[in-house]
Design brief:
By secondary structure, this protein is mainly α. The chain has helices at about 1-25, 30-35, 40-45, 55-65.
Length: about 80
């Protein structure tokens, strides 16, 4: 009986460690610190789900690239970039 209890305690500790690691890797607090709104930060963080094994820096970079203004090319009347 005590063996089962020990296994359950180890499993709970492993879950807690995994949750703590997920919090450390979460990009939302870092984006909020940069001044983005909570809804913007959550939307950008959802884009990072495609690269779960990336470093925190790579995840923040991807999130920031999602938050930038849309890029467009302005063309003058001659068909050349202005």
């Amino acid at each position: 009986m005590s063996r089962k209890r020990e296994e359950a305690q180890r499993a709970a500790a492993a879950r807690a460690a995994a949750e703590e690691q997920a919090k450390e890797r979460d990009v939302v607090p870092w984006l909020r610190a940069l001044g983005f709104r909570a809804d913007e930060a959550r939307r950008a963080a959802s884009a990072c789900e495609t690269i779960p094994d990336a470093s925190l820096e790579e995840r923040v970079r991807l999130a920031l690239s999602c938050l930038g203004p849309p890029h467009r090319r302005v063309v003058n009347g001659l068909g050349r970039p202005a």
